[in-house]
Amino acid sequence: MKIMVIGAGQMGGGIAQVMAANNHVTYLNDISMELIHKRVDFIGAILQKNVDKGKISPDQRMETLSRILPTISLDDAADCDLIIEAIVENMEAKASIFSKLDLICKPSCIFASNTSSLPLTEIAACTNRPDRVIGMHFMNPVPVMKLVEIIRGLATSDETYEVIKQLAKDIAKVPVEVRDVPGFVSNRVLQLMINEAIYCLYEGVATPQGIDTVMKLGMNNPMGPLELADFIGLDTVLAIMETLYHGYGDCKYRPCPLLRQYVKAGWYGKKSGRGFYQY
Ligand code: NAI
């Protein structure tokens, strides 16, 4: 399968790595070559660690890297069989990309979005191929995490669903079908916990380290919720909370004011060097 991954951020990079490692020629697209090359270097470093640990051979590393083709032109999507979009969690941005791709891509090309929370039905409606639009929600870090939530929009065809479900299995992931509701299952549950942890910090209940230690040692979570929020990106966490809040119209999803303030300050977590912790 020839694939284009759009967005060379932490998710797009991980998705491109996994697809290329599984023999798929994969274009990696972003708004600048510099961003894409930075991501490809990062993937190269991760693969080198796997070589050092004896998990893959140096040849496998080189072959995987050679299948990742950097491009800033959407026109390269013309001969692709699958698009996986992983740009910012913003409906307008995603709609704009998909309506452009709809004119470029062949009719049989499937459009998958890695959105964390946005309605697939609305994304599909921006195209003339709503039957070939689907959610393929990977977890972070993509090469490590087994789950892929598969979200069908109102018009997604059975054929599209079967292709994506099989692809997820072929790359050794575990697909779970979920309905097209805000936040799906993963973020409907997870983000409420993260938001509540931010409220604890906001109200001075405990320090960030204290909150995370409670959840790690008390609940056996591998990461504390604030550490995890920093890892996801606080801009993404806020975007997901807004989708949940507006989507369900329920005040239990109200984003904590401290989260809004951090995002306004440019404190996006690990990717910007500062969030609840300093990096
Ligand atoms: P990120 O901030 O690391 O990367 C986003 C990338 O998209 C950036 O490199 C940016 O330059 C690029 N971009 C923005 N507009 C673009 C455009 N018009 N064309 C091409 N590239 C464009 O974000 P991240 O964390 O990789 O998230 C991406 C998507 O994946 C979002 O929809 C997010 O909700 C979802 N997601 C995020 C997870 C996480 O843990 N961070 C987990 C699962 C899904």
If you had to describe this structure to a student in words, what would you say it looks like?
With 279 residues, this protein is of the alpha/beta class. It folds into 2 domains: 178 residues, NAD(P)-binding Rossmann-like Domain (Rossmann fold, 3-Layer(aba) Sandwich); 87 residues, N-(1-d-carboxylethyl)-l-norvaline Dehydrogenase, domain 2 (Orthogonal Bundle). It has 11 helices and 8 strands. A hairpin with an 8-residue loop joins strand 6 and strand 7. Helix 1 crosses helix 2 and helix 7 packs across helix 10. The longest helix is centred in the N-terminal third of the chain and has 20 residues. Bound molecules: 1,4-dihydronicotinamide adenine dinucleotide. The site of 1,4-dihydronicotinamide adenine dinucleotide has 27 residues, from helix 1, helix 4 and strand 6. Belongs to the 3-hydroxyacyl-CoA dehydrogenase family. This is 3-hydroxybutyryl-CoA dehydrogenase. Pathway: Lipid metabolism; butanoate metabolism. GO terms for molecular function: NAD+ binding; oxidoreductase activity, acting on the CH-OH group of donors, NAD or NADP as acceptor.
